[in-house]
Specification:
alpha/beta, single chain, 7 strands, Rossmann fold
Amino acid sequence: MTDSERVKQYFQRSASGFDLIYAEEKSNLRKFLDRRFRQDMYERYELTLRECMDIRGKRILDVGCGPGRYCIQLAKAGPAEVMGLDLAENALRIASDLAKNNGLSNICSFRCADFAEYQFDTQFHICLAVGLFDYVADPVPLISKMRDITLEKIIMTFPSKSTYRMVIRKVRYWFKRCPLFLYDKGRIEDILAESGVPDYTIRKLSGADNSGDFFVVAKL
């Protein structure tokens, strides 16, 4: 079984639970735990929205969109199109329902596809790869492809391997038979150089116990 197939199986099983992280309708205990242990996920969400403030009339691509929470929020800002790609059909069903329930089906579209193989017939102003490279052994080909189809910026995250909590996460994903790849700043800089992306910023998110992701904005 390939890494992509393992990732797909994992998110087929966990799509609803992952979506619950961003949902408002959940128990107070779950809200506390999410805010305590998933601080960097909320931080990267807010930073991504901030980077996408001026998107009226633009086209946005979210690679590894999952249940579509980023897509839905961005679609409210008046873009021409928001497209989400993901491997897990269960996650995309949630995304489609969210778009329908928010009256955004005319702006949001979702594809069950592998980004590496998908053939695009248009370019996008902004491309998101948030929470994607956690599960990708070699990000260089994907970032290179994103660079070719993106007009303005690519927003990416990379999970940090700098704390003991990341070791625990690595073991947990091993038991779940889902690949997980961790990074330090030097490795990210090498990846961006190999991908032909010279203009970028890297920000280390806080997270619990300084375990937050690296938040990268590449300007094209």
